[in-house]
Specification:
Blueprint: H1 2-29, E1 42-47, E2 56-61, E3 67-71, E4 74-78, E5 83-85, E6 95-100, E7 106-110, E8 115-118, E9 123-126, E10 137-142, E11 148-152, E12 155-159, E13 164-170, E14 173-177, E15 193-198, E16 204-208, E17 212-215, E18 220-222, E19 234-237, E20 243-246, E21 250-253, E22 258-262, E23 266-271, E24 277-283, E25 286-292, E26 304-310, E27 315-318, E28 324-328, E29 330-334, E30 338-343
């Protein structure tokens, strides 16, 4: 009899566990149809010294695996163990951009002090006195030929390692400027160059606070392939050769047709190794980190998962280990299970 009741109790416990697991799984599936491990992750706080205490504008990784963060209070290096502010002593201006070039040099773009080149030992500062079109640098890009492009307030500069060639906004488009004159700092025209890429065909794309401009090496033209996107803050080319633009909406352009996925404002776009598209998108009175499932992007209504929300999310980057880093107030890392917010004791948020 005791053996009978013992077995019955075991059966009841197993049944209860299976029912709990089934209900829990169904609850996770009810809204998105996604597996349980794709529901919105929890956020953990890691109190860490020497991290950005304010806005983190861009995140990159160098060839040695170090993570670099351009932030309003410096440029921070994360070596996998700790953070170090490499450039906080250089200027009181905010930093907006960072890039490692093919030679291993790091470039830091500031909001008023031009750009700094760092070879791992010393810094070299380039400003309008050296030929830079403007001292407010919003983005940095290296093209296939090894030229470094700087997106600035009112134009762009191309640096070949010896000298600058400048391109300035002219009406709705751009022209090359051969006068050698720089654009006065802090004039804040609606022509800030916010994003630069070179696509697989060799064309350059410039995102501005006004139009999107395409340069074929000879002529600049306003891009009209998807209507007239404005306030474009980010442009990427995905692994299939599609051009994605984020601004007053989210678009994908395949070279002939365009798809509009959202009319909400978008600040940043990133493609991960699995082909998923991540965006920083405005959602009501906040900004959300969204993941568009790559397998469903052929649909006009792909599967979208909201991973996190913040006051503003400025940048998104996937590291070599697959983790997703993003910059908001401070810097965050998503490892596939948990979002870690690296935060200092001094931070008030």
């Amino acid at each position: 009899m005791l053996k009978f009741f013992g077995q019955m109790m075991k059966d009841i416990l197993v049944y209860a566990f299976l029912m709990f697991a089934s209900c829990t799984f169904s609850k996770g599936q009810s809204k998105t149809g996604l597996p349980k491990d794709n529901i919105k992750p929890e956020i953990e706080v890691s109190i860490t010294p020497n991290v950005p205490t304010g806005t983190a504008r861009i995140i990159e990784q160098d060839r040695s695996g170090n993570i670099w963060i351009a932030a309003f209070d410096g440029v921070f290096k994360y070596d996998g163990q700790s953070f170090t502010n490499i450039a906080g002593h250089l200027t009181s201006y905010r930093f907006f951009s960072v890039l490692e070039d093919r030679r291993g040099n790091l470039w830091f773009g500031s909001g008023g002090a031009g750009v700094y080149k760092y070879d791992g030992r010393s810094f070299q500062n380039f400003t309008s006195k050296e030929g830079l079109v403007n001292n407010e640098i919003f983005c940095i890009y290296e093209d296939k030929a090894g030229n470094i492009w700087f997106g600035a307030n009112g134009g762009a500069s191309r640096y070949d390692g010896k000298s600058f060639r400048n391109y300035v906004m002219n009406g709705d488009s751009m022209i090359e400027d051969r006068t050698g004159k720089s654009i006065p700092d802090f004039t804040r025209p609606p022509h800030e160059i916010t994003s630069i890429i070179e696509d697989k065909t060799g064309k350059f794309w410039f995102g501005t606070r006004d139009n999107t401009i395409v340069y074929d090496g000879t002529t600049f033209s306003v891009f009209t392939g998807i209507g007239k996107p404005t306030n474009v803050r980010c442009i990427i080319e995905d692994s299939k050769g599609n051009i994605w633009l984020g601004g007053n909406g989210l678009w994908r352009y395949d070279g002939s047709t365009s798809t509009n996925f959202s009319n909400n404002s978008v600040l940043y776009i990133c493609e991960d190794k699995a082909g998923n598209i991540w965006t920083s998108s405005q959602k009501r009175d906040a900004w959300a980190l969204l993941r568009y499932d790559g397998k469903s992007l052929s649909s006009k209504k792909p599967t979208v998962t909201e991973m996190s929300s913040h006051a503003v999310i400025w940048s998104i980057f996937q590291a070599d280990d697959g983790s997703i880093w993003y910059g908001a107030l401070g810097v965050h890392r998503y490892d596939g299970n948990t979002i870690t917010h690296f935060k200092s004791k001094e931070a008030k948020y």
